[in-house]
Amino acid sequence: MSETPTILLVEDDPQIRELVAATLEGEGYTIIEAGTAAQGAVEAGARKPDLLILDLGLPDRNGINFIRDYRIWSAVPILVLSARSQEISKVTALDAGADDYLTKPFGVSELLARVRALLRRNPSEREQLEPIIEFGECRIDCVHRAVTRAGEPLHLTDIQYRLLILLASNPGRVLTHRQLLLQIWGSHALENNQYLRIYVGHLRQKIERIPAQPRHIITEIGVGYRFEP
What we know:
Arc Repressor Mutant, subunit A; five-stranded parallel beta sheet; four-stranded antiparallel beta sheet; alpha/beta
């Protein structure tokens, strides 16, 4: 961690963003502000913060999906600030990869305590990979959520994109049906292997030279899938 920790604050409410930013700057932290998920992703890729503070109710994207995508290439701690107080919202955010969850409205002292706790982690636990993944003729820009093949844009659905980066960020590793279903669709879809096969088939049509003889997304029969770059 740098001498002055850098915190990325992704919050669309300007009043809350101003309050949190002023509070953290008063404690000596360097604050980067973003009002949308798209801006937050760009800042995360460019500035590589030590901590991400994230509102789930962003105007341009579901905060849970933002967490899942960010976790593909960064282990930086995530503190969720949300008005959603239901237990299921907290569980979903933590399962997606958040490290802590603070419900609005919150006290300044509690916010600062949670920030300090997350920043005490060993820097080796906050690994950040380059947000670019390349294989074969394909290139994935994780920050801008853009995929190209031989220089031409590939148009993927949100689920196809998240499935691709989850596989591609674990080269050579077998990801089970259960792992993939949980990460992409959540616990309600854990038994729907056929659903997963359909999406893998569609994805192969877009990234493989010969979809019937895949080189990148390899089926491990009865277990899951393995990605070979």
